[in-house]
Design a protein that fits this description.
Largest sheet: 7 strands, mixed
Strand content: 5-15%
Structural class: alpha/beta
Number of strands: 13
């Protein structure tokens, strides 16, 4: 689509919605019929309507009727069944390598520490964890904490706020001392989409293991974990997978590493014989060894409905709509917001951009608060960034345009 003029925006949004092969999915989400504009699907996705029925059925028929028998009948295996479905539908992983477990933070700690310990045991010279300074705070905080715990060191990569880690940057940072490289597939601030295959290869060639943070890509951007040679990965489920507030994260560990890695939170659910209650811990084979405590069964129910929709739509079609939505946001921004001094703080090349666009202006903190009062819901990230997070299955182009017009009006008021 060429650059748009303000008078052409309505026609463009209508044409895009009319030609959208995924437009029917929007009606399957709670609240999509309301005038509220939701620009925060990259933080917390809308709930599918089917989820209300699923949760009620679980309370009455499984939890209520089967009670503790549910563990033997299905619940013990549910983390693995849903994990395999995430692997198949969202991250390109063969069965037996993905499981639902703890929060993103806990799983990142487990994978980083397991990878670091294994690397240093094999080669004591490998003491560095590589991470970029603009990675999500949890990722950076964990790396610093693990370095303190183990006597390791942090190798920081400097990246631009409107970009992310590029192959040449990583190549200059890794070497014989590198144990683990922690990378985000989609940068939380800018939306920069990393070349995951190339970066994984660079780390591997240096003898390092990679841990990928897939929080802003799983369910929105195609991921090919097996094909790209991932070692380990973690992702949340409450963004594009619509698992609900605080829904548990997933962890991927390539089969070739599972037997060699020892995760540091040794709980009963990861033991070789869960119910032996033995005097000593012996890790289970396969992905069970990456569990710790009792699986959060209720917390993993909702994401199944979105996984079903993703399987139906196909991640390639979801990505195509994501590209169309973010491109539309940029074009509307150029037409309505650029004259007000708003800049796009995300990659302009759509192939280097994930599922959200960050717009920058000194007034954006006030603008975000103002918009929330109007039922237009973006989020704010320092410095001066308003994030437009667009979930392809639940977001229309008309909704996007309505929200962008509200952004324009608010910027005018607060920049005056």
């Amino acid at each position: 689509m060429n650059a748009l003029h303000a008078r052409e925006l309505d026609a463009a949004a209508s044409a895009l919605d009319a030609s959208d092969p995924l437009r029917g999915f929007r009606d399957r989400f709670v609240g999509a019929e309301s005038p509220l504009v939701y620009f925060d699907g990259n933080s917390l996705g809308r709930p599918p309507k089917a989820t209300a029925e699923r949760l009620a059925s679980f309370v009455e028929q499984e939890w209520g009727a089967r009670l503790i028998r549910g563990w033997d009948e299905s619940w013990m295996e549910l983390p693995f069944a849903i994990g395999d479905e995430i692997g198949r539908v969202a991250i390109g992983a063969a069965a037996g390598q993905t499981v639902i477990a703890d929060s993103t933070t806990v799983l990142l700690y487990k994978t980083l520490r397991a990878a670091f310990d294994a690397q240093r045991a094999a080669d004591p010279a490998r003491v560095e964890i590589v991470v970029d300074r603009d990675n999500f705070p949890t990722d950076r905080y964990l790396v610093e904490g693990i370095a303190r715990e183990t006597g390791g060191t942090v190798r920081w990569i400097e990246v631009p706020r409107d970009g992310g880690v590029e192959p040449e940057t990583l190549r200059a940072a890794v070497g014989p001392a590198t144990a683990v490289v922690l990378l985000s597939h989609v940068a939380y601030r800018s939306g920069h989409l990393a070349d995951a295959e190339a970066l994984t290869r660079i780390a591997r060639d240096a003898g390092a293991l990679t841990v990928w943070d897939l929080c802003h890509s799983a369910g929105s951007v195609p991921v090919l974990a097996d094909e790209w040679g991932f070692d380990l990965a973690v992702g949340c489920t409450y963004k594009y997978l619509n698992g609900g507030p605080g829904s548990p994260a997933f962890v991927y560990v390539a089969e070739r590493h599972q037997a060699a890695l020892t995760q540091p939170v040794q709980g009963w659910m990861g033991a070789a014989d869960v119910f032996s209650m033995g005097p000593q811990y012996a890790p289970a084979a396969g992905m069970r060894r990456f569990l710790s405590g009792t699986p959060p069964i209720v917390g993993m129910l909702a994401m199944q409905d979105t996984l079903g929709m993703l399987a139906e739509a196909g991640i390639a079609a979801v990505r195509e709509k994501s590209l169309a939505l973010t491109s539309f946001v940029e074009q509307v921004s150029d037409a309505l917001l650029a004259p007000l001094g708003v800049t796009v703080a995300s990659p302009r090349d759509p192939q280097r951009r994930g599922g959200h666009v960050t717009l920058s202006h000194p007034a954006m903190r006030q603008v975000t608060a103002d918009l929330w009062e109007q039922d237009v819901i973006p989020d704010y990230r320092d410095p001066d960034g308003l994030r437009i997070g667009l979930s392809p299955l639940s977001t229309s182009f008309a909704e996007t345009l309505a929200g962008m017009r509200a952004v324009e009006e608010s910027v005018r008021r607060h920049a005056a």
